[in-house]
Amino acid sequence: MPVASSDPASPGGYAHRGRRPSTSREALSRAALHLFASRGYEATTVDDIAAAVGVSRRTFFRYFESKRDAIWGEFDAELARLETELGSAAPDEPMMDVLTRAVVTTNRFGAGELDELRIRIGLISTVPSLIAHSAVRYAEWRDVVAAFAARRLGRAPDDLAPQALARAALGVAAAAFDSWASGDSDDLGGAVEQAFRLLSGGFGDGDPQP
Amino acid sequence: MPVASSDPASPGGYAHRGRRPSTSREALSRAALHLFASRGYEATTVDDIAAAVGVSRRTFFRYFESKRDAIWGEFDAELARLETELGSAAPDEPMMDVLTRAVVTTNRFGAGELDELRIRIGLISTVPSLIAHSAVRYAEWRDVVAAFAARRLGRAPDDLAPQALARAALGVAAAAFDSWASGDSDDLGGAVEQAFRLLSGGFGDGDPQP
DNA sequence: TTCCATTTTGACATCGAGTGCGATAAATTG
DNA sequence: CAATTTATCGCACTCGATGTCAAAATGGAA
After folding, report:
1. CB contacts, 8 Å: B132 with chain A
2. Are residues A128 and A185 in contact, defined by beta-carbon separation less than 8 angstroms?
3. Residues with Cβ < 8 Å from B96, sequence gap 6 or more?
4. How far apart, in whole angstroms, are the C-alpha atoms of residue B149 and residue A24?
5. CA–CA separation, A162 vs B194, rounded Å?
6. Which of B142-166 are b and which e, b meaning 16 or more Cβ less than 10 Å from the residue's Cβ?
7. Which of A119, B52, B81, B205 is most exposed, with the fewest beta carbons within 10 Å of its own?
8. CA–CA separation, B202 vs B45, rounded Å?
9. How many CB pairs under 8 A join A and B?
10. Which of A153, A158, A178 sits opposite B163 (nearest CB)?
11. B172 close contact with A: CB closer than 8 A
12. In angstroms, what CA-CA distances link B114 with A79, A181, B76, B126?
């Protein structure tokens, strides 16, 4: 029963003051994704999404800050996991190794999620308005990586080196995601690992494995 | 007389059909920049900008696709220069060397332009709405670099390696710009070079010069 | 049961970005 | 002067986003 947490009579759910929600973040997110995928992002209005789950436009904006945010699923949670992963690494493990492993492990998805993920990434990297918004979400990701790099390098988080590393890491990770999303491989982790190997190698030789 | 090209009686200017422009792209861009810097980006409306140069709101949108675009100065021209620079390099010069040099040389600015440039970059990397839009403009930059890398690596432009390199290069270049803009150094080129050295070195050692 | 506190939802108004369209103003050419 | 060309203007409209307030639904306490 993957209906998640919108069931009003949820089992084990304890007493609940006030009116019960008539929808959920997830229901709105899914409805939005499907509408975006079928009609196109720009052609879908917030009213359409709200109507698809039977709520008013205003209610949509109680669950999401903006129409764009509806496509970012559980990004906040993934970000928190990345932070934990980076924070709990052994201090003697090389910086780039830690980073690669952390990015790979925070991006494991079950087989059932891959189809939707592919659609999400496809939209995010294709629709101008979503490309634009991605920069804002990715900035949060960058900050986490920059903080980690700053600790490892003994610099301030907004010094050039940590910032350059964070942005470069974001770049190769995004390249891996896009490449995966536009192909038909199942191995997202493999693409991420390959991209980070290129980065660690300084893009030096035409052939990445010596 | 830095009033540029909006002078109706321009010397040597030859005959000119139709009504003369009552403003110019540059005048609008400057007015926008000053308003953004003083009142803030969000608090400045397109009407404000148009009014500042004595023109209607509708006319603003004849010169810029959007309010956000008003801050991107001569980006298109810089992009064309980057493309030329990358295309005309000696085929035996190492890829990363060519790239570094091209980025440095396409970002030389005269001393008179540095103050405005600092404000532009500060806004672009600070205001959420402009951070977002930067992704769209930077995507054009990435495409140019990816095409160059693809030629050098003998791959298609949207293969993982060229894409990863292009995005990583963009990342470190942006880090250099931000770092420069938030400091008080005059040496933008130096920052860019340092960032690319980190990238070429794979962020391997804590100390970038071996 | 009745009343209250809490929470979600909805209706309405408002603002600003962006677009389409047609009218008008100013300039050159003949 | 008329025809043509180009730039500007005004207006109406859509849509995303925000603020405000009233209404609906629910659990708990009196």
Report:
1. 132-133, 135-136
2. no
3. A202, A203, A204, B196, B199, B200
4. 45
5. 12
6. bbbbbbbbbebbebebebbbbbbbb
7. B205
8. 44
9. 129
10. A178
11. yes
12. 36, 40, 18, 18
pLDDT tens across B13-71, in order?
Answer: 456 899 999 999 999 999 999 999 999 999 999 999 999 999 999 999 999 999 999 99
Angle made by CA atoms A33, A35, A38, in degrees to the nearest 5: 105
What is the structure's pLDDT at A14?
47
Nearest protein residue by Cα to C1' of nucleotide C16 = B45
pLDDT digits (tens, 9 = 90+) for A101-145: 999 999 999 888 899 999 999 999 999 999 999 999 999 999 999
| Nearest chain A CA: its distance from B70 CA (Å) | 16
Q: In the structure encoding, which two tokens stand for residue B94, read together?
A: 């190492």
* Beta-carbon-side half-sphere exposure of residue B107 (alpha carbons within 13 Å): 23
- Of A191 and A74, the structure prediction assigns the larger pLDDT to A191
Residue A161 to residue B200, Cβ atoms within 8 A: no
Does any CB of chain B come closer than 8 Å to the CB of residue A199? yes
- Quote the CA–CA distance of B121 and B98 in Å, as a whole number: 25
As given in the structure block, the two tokens for residue B60 are 């603003």
What confidence category does residue B4 fall into, taking pLDDT thresholds of 50, 70 and 90? very low
Look up residue A15 and give its DSSP letter: P
pLDDT (tens digit, 9 = 90+) per residue, B156-207? 999 999 999 999 999 999 999 999 999 888 899 999 999 999 999 999 764 4
pLDDT category of residue B11 using cuts at 50, 70 and 90? very low
Q: Tell me if chain A has a CB within 8 Å of the CB of B91.
A: no
